[in-house]
Input
Amino acid sequence: MSENQIKQLINLSIQEDKVHQDITSKLTIPKNLVVSVNIVSKGNGILFGVNIVKKILKTIDKKIKIKIFKSDGKGIKKGNKIINLKGKGQSILKSERIILNFLGHLSGVASETKKLVNQTKKYKTKICCTRKTLPGMRYLQKLAIKAGGGFNNRYDLEQEIFIKDNHHLDKVKFRDKIIQVIKKNKNKKIINAEVDNLNQLKQIVDLKIDRILLDNFSSVNLKNALKIIPKTIQTEASGNINPKNIIQYARTGVKRISLGYLTHSVKNFDFSLEF
Output
C-alpha cells in the first residue's frame, strides 16, 4: 500500500464522519480554546495504530502537537498513557472518533494475534491471517498481525496461486487441474492447494506444489493427514479453529494455522480520550 493509498483511506474516513462539519463542537467549544488531552489504554494488550493516528491528526489540523509515550508493537497495560495531544479543543474533539476507531481496531488485531502466538509458541506453529479483511484496511490489518507476532498469508490474488474447490468449474479432475497449473506457472509463483478430505490429499501429495491447506479438518484427521505429506510441502490448517481448540491443532505439528476472525471480527481494544 502506497502513502497515497493511506492518504485516500484517511480522507475517506474524514469525509465519512463529516469532521469539518462538527456542529456540536462548534456550538459548545470556544474556537480558540487550547486543551491538552491523553489517549489512555483501558486494558492490557499490544499497541498498534499510533503512526496512522499521527497522520490522521496532521491531516485534520497540522497545529496539533503530538507526544508519543508508547510506540507501535509495544505491550501496554490498563491506565497507560499512549499519546498526548495539545491543540484546539474543536480540532481534537472532531478527530476523536476516527483516531480511536483506527487505534482500537488495529490494537485489537495485534493483541488477539499475540494471545494466539503465546498459546502456541512451544509448538512453533506460525499464526497467520487470511484475506478476510475489512475493505480498504488490509494493509494496516496485516501490519497489525505482524506487530502481534503473527504472519501474513498471501496479500492479494496476484501474489500466490491458491487452488480451491471453486476453481474446478470446468469439471477437470482435481489432480489434473493442479498439474495444469504447475505446467502453466511460468513465473514460478508459490502454488497452494486446498483440500477438504484425505481422499483429495492423497491425489496430490506427490506433485511439486509448495503448500497444502487442510480445510475444516478435525485435529485427529489433521494429524493423520500430516503423516502422508512430504516435508518438502509446507502445511497449513484453517477452518473451525479458535482460541479454545487451537492447542489441539498446534500439537499436530502443522506449520501454519490461519484464522480469518483475526481481521474480520476481532474484539475492539478500548481506549479513552481523557482531559
Notes: Residues 61 and 91 are 6 Å apart (CA to CA).
